[in-house]
Amino acid sequence: MGWWKVIAPILLAISLCLQGTIRVSSTSPLTQKNQDFEQSAGTSTLKQQQEHAHEVHCSRERSRAAWKVIDEYLVPFVEQERYQMSSKCRLHPDNDLFRDQEQHKIHFDINEWRCGYCKKSFRAEKFLDQHFDNRHYNLLNVSHSKCLADLCGALHCDLMMNSKSAKTKCNPAAAARNRHLCESLADNCFPINQGPSASRLHELFLHQFCDAHTCSRGPKPFSRGGKKQTSIFYLAGSILILMLLPIFYLVVYLYQREIRRGTQELKRISPLGRKTKPS
Ligand SMILES: [Zn+2]
User: Fold this and answer.
1) What is the strand order of the sheet 112-115 is part of?
2) Rounded to whole angstroms, how far apart are CA atoms 101 and 93?
3) Distance 158 CA to ligand 1 centre (A)
4) Residue 8: its pLDDT value, please?
């Protein structure tokens, strides 16, 4: 099998490439652990600095999760309808306390995050968060209640953060409270009397977020789909196809060439074979 000699190095190279990518992705948790370790050494000084941050009673992490939910599962539909959310709507970007800081995060590399205000760089996002809390806390406008994390109950942030397992027991009172908050968001952000696109978005919001706030078997949250998940699967699928397609054609080409060569050799051998045959 001559063609096997050609294919073997190619397959070897591909497998090495794949191993390389796996190794790269597996290093990130390790470096994270190192940073955790290094971080614990310097916590005493950090705690002193964090005294300023106690004025803000809003979770940055949960606000970020709420923003991700809005960005993935609501914004695509709002953009599709070309609808302008009122600034009175609590889902409006202006009503996220941390939005400005989050937009000043520069993700330079896997292990490099930069502060957009002073260009200082950090090895992980959480260190940049701490830097914002310590150095740029004066940029937060805390005079109004703009905590996006307060809407987490309605927006299913736990699903985004993967912090709670899906099997936790349902609390009917909490589900009712979240549903009420959710419906009030739909009424405030997409008033039905403001035209067809607002009422379409109102209905979508109820299906996408509110209907799932029930202890009986109801629809799952984000039942209308979102933006990022599909695009990631699409991207991964197309990359895989692009990688496999040339290999497939190469194998087919080499196989056919081998068959052609084989038949030519047979043609050459067969007359010789007849001559040497003793009669
Ligand atoms: Zn800074």
Assistant:
1) 105-109, 112-115, 121-122
2) 12
3) 29
4) 56
Provide the 10 A C-beta neighbour count for residue 143: 6
Contact partners, residue 258, CB within 8 Å, separation at least 6: 1, 2, 3
Asked if 73 and 226 count as a contact pair (C-beta separation under 8 A), the reply is yes
How large is the C-alpha radius of gyration of the chain?
29
Contact criterion met (CB below 8 Å) for 86 and 198: no
Q: How far is the CA of 234 from the centre of ligand 1 (A)?
A: 36
Query: CA-CA-CA-CA torsion for 211, 214, 218, 221, nearest 10 degrees?
Result: 50
d(CA 73, CA 221): 10
pLDDT at 146: 86
The per-residue pLDDT for range 115-138, each reduced to its tens digit, is 999 999 999 999 999 999 999 988
CA distance 274 to 193: 94
Of the candidates 56, 206, 72, the one whose C-alpha atom is nearest the C-alpha of residue 134 is 56
**Which residues, 6+ apart, have CB-to-CB distance to 10 below 8 Å?**
247, 250
Distance 35 CA to ligand 1 centre (A): 19
Ligand 1 centroid distance, CA of 116 (Å): 7
131 C-beta neighbours (distance < 10 Å), count: 19
